[in-house]
Protein: DUF2087 domain-containing protein
Organism: Amantichitinum ursilacus
Amino acid sequence: MSRPIYPFYSSNISELARSLKQQWAEQAEAPGHLQILNMLAKAAGFANFQHLRASCETVKQQEAQEAAVAPAVKRLLRHFDEQGRLLRWPNKFSEQQVCLWAAWDVLPPTGEYSEAQINEPLKQCQTFNDHVMLRRELVSMKLLDRTIDGRKYWRLDGTPDADTASLLAVLRGRRARAA
């Protein structure tokens, strides 16, 4: 019977060793196999081994989802980092329009917001430091609206096409993994 492999990572090996030593010292006798697995998981920041295992399964599912997307979506994913943030503004207009949906997706869906409140999620969803351009393009594309004086903004309803919806699902997964 083949056992699943769960990757294990610790950003600080010294802290890992310290945590294991402390947990081992708290045991009355030598810990068993499952206790050692739980100790390792706790030392890596998980509640227990089951938590570590569930986390690995979620990552595997998200990676499988990304591998199954259409080639057009894979091409668009090169504009985004592992946290789901837009890395650069695409040159092609058709790609720009799809990338704007990714910015639209992080905006609050209901209510009116000030310019500063709208700017904050736009700053977080990109790395090239031009949230103003994103805001302006969202308004031009009719995904975001504002009062004439620009004091209040609100997200407009929209329905992305199938490829764009697939891209948004992948980006939501990346953002959730990064959180």
Remarks:
- The chain has a mean pLDDT of 87.
- The beta strands are 144-146, 153-155.
